[in-house]
Amino acid sequence: MEETKPVKTEAGEPLSAEQATNVSGGDASATAGTSGLNVSSGPAPDPGAALISIYEGFVDVTSHIIERVVNAAK
Description:
By secondary structure, the chain is α+β, with helices and mostly antiparallel strands. The protein has two domains: about 1-40, no CATH class; about 45-74. It has helices spanning about 15-25, 45-74, and strands at about 30-35, 35-40. A two-stranded antiparallel ribbon has the order 1-2. Strand 1 and strand 2 form a beta hairpin. The radius of gyration is 22 Å and the shape is elongated.
């Protein structure tokens, strides 16, 4: 695991672009300036794709459980 050391900044000091990206989760664009921190993420996730992903996750878990039960019963 990579060790990271906290970077100390004084109160009211603007964040660097790297610090702003880390604060926003690293997958969104962020800008820091005198007016504050502006964070914008990509497009909103598709609800249909999210539901399909959840369903496929349930199918995978169920399949895994069935396989474990069958192997334990042998």
